[in-house]
TrEMBL record:
InterPro entries: MFS, MFS_dom, MFS_trans_sf, NO3_transporter, NO3_transporter_NarK/NarU-like. This is Nitrate/nitrite transporter. GO terms for cellular component: plasma membrane. It comes from the Eukaryota. The chain crosses the membrane at residues 50-70, 115-134, 140-161, 173-197, 209-231, 268-293, 299-317, 338-356, 362-386. GO terms for biological process: nitrate assimilation. It comes from Skeletonema marinoi. It is a multi-pass membrane protein. Keywords: Cell membrane, Membrane, Nitrate assimilation, Transmembrane, Transmembrane helix, Transport. Its main location: membrane. Belongs to the major facilitator superfamily. Nitrate/nitrite porter (TC 2.A.1.8) family.
């Protein structure tokens, strides 16, 4: 165990020593990241945040690689959906998370990210497990809307690490948990479309396979959500409930917190900037597998494996985006962070056009790797800006 806090013994807090170096002037937030450490409270929260977000993303996009099968006619084992109906369900999936993300910020301010993360994971697991009950486009759209609420755990993920790490390392910490969490969107393409679905098909019909396979991620998500609530902490000095009771944290109004964020012009500017990169990723996660089936004639298993590549870039690209943002901030301040993100968004925009007009499968895959790397790095660069939107 490394450095302890330098504050006096009279201060009320849950832990008197920590597994990482901390800054007492920033509420005992960690000044370093020890990836191989799982100690409470800092690194436990770090790992719980990305694992919870990873599982939420896995659940959120578990249906995506199965859509080429689900859209087929009832005679072929599907429910008979048009391409437009598929896109409508994709939009509903994103609407769910968009709606909930506006609520999650103020709720995290009031109750902390730990409980909200766990509850959302458990809630999203229920409609995921009920995937097999859909019979038409309307029921699928409603189902995906409620599953999409789990995608809002991103807010919990970022809030949690911002609560645990100082602003100087927040870009790297937030990018790592965000990137590793978003990796779930790529892993689910591979696991659901190329592993579990073919495995289920060996013992049952195509229709029964897609109707039952989503139970697997649902069960995992539900129990992980429950576990997170009990094995982690809200903040370096303890849980919000305890801190409010002992007077080390004031009572916060969720409504006042929402108004404060909504009235800050920087919130909306960053909202647009992040939409230009994360919005692209959501579209790719929803549509990539179907795109490779429709445009290049790939099987569901093959298309899902290819589509998963986009998500796998999260393994390192977001971390790089946040790391570079921290480095240019040390040299140029906030101006450096903004220049870095602006450059990434411009390159990303160019690559979208190039990818969309690529006619060969090999070329499309290579471009998707480069395109995804830039998209994830742009997202990572956002996390270095977040702590400065409202320094309080």
């Amino acid at each position: 165990m490394s450095t302890a806090v330098a504050s006096g013994e009279a201060e009320i807090k849950k832990y008197q020593t920590y597994h990482v170096k901390v800054d007492p002037d920033q509420d005992d937030k960690a000044t370093e990241i020890k990836l191989c450490n799982f100690g409470r409270p800092h690194m436990r929260a770090f790992h719980c945040s990305w694992m919870g977000f990873f599982t939420a993303f896995f659940i959120w996009f578990a249906i995506a690689p199965l859509l080429p099968v689900i859209k087929k006619s009832p005679e072929e084992g599907g429910i008979g959906l048009s391409r437009q109906e598929i896109w409508t369900t994709n939009i509903c999936s994103v609407l769910g998370t968009t709606f909930m993300r506006f609520i999650n910020g103020p709720m995290c301010d009031k109750y902390g990210a730990r409980i909200l993360m766990g509850v959302l994971l458990m809630f999203a697991s229920i409609p995921c497990a009920l995937t097999g009950l859909v019979n038409d486009a309307a029921s699928l759209a409603v189902l995906r809307f409620f599953i999409g609420l789990g995608g809002s755990t991103f807010v919990c993920c970022q809030f949690w690490t911002s609560r645990m790490f100082t602003k100087e390392v927040a870009g790297t910490a937030n990018a790592l948990v965000g990137g590793w969490g978003n990796l779930g969107g790529g892993v689910t393409q591979l696991v659901m479309g190329s592993v579990l679905f073919p495995l289920f098909q060996t013992g049952m019909s195509v229709e029964m396979a897609w109707r039952t396979v989503c139970i697997v991620p649902a069960v995992v998500g539900f129990f992980l959500g429950l576990l997170i609530i009990f094995i982690s902490d809200d903040a370096p000095k303890g849980n919000y409930k305890e801190m409010k009771m002992n007077g080390t944290m004031p009572e916060i109004s969720a409504a006042a917190s929402f108004r404060s964020g909504a009235m800050n012009i920087n919130t909306w500017l960053l909202f647009l900037q992040y939409g230009c990169c994360f919005g692209v990723e959501l579209t790719m996660n929803n549509a990539a597998a179907s795109y490779f089936v429709n445009e290049f004639g790939q099987t569901v298993a093959s298309a899902a494996a290819i589509a998963s590549i986009f998500g796998w870039m999260n393994l390192f690209a977001r971390g790089i985006g946040g790391y570079v943002s921290d480095k240019v901030n040390a040299r140029m301040g906030m101006k450096g962070r903004l220049i870095w993100q602006g450059a990434l968004l411009v390159v990303e925009g160019v690559l979208i056009f190039v990818f969309a007009n690529t006619k060969s499968l090999a070329g499309a895959i290579v471009l998707m790797v480069i395109f995804s790397t830039i998209v994830q790095a742009a997202e990572g660069s956002t996390y270095g800006i977040v702590p400065y939107v409202n320094p309080r």
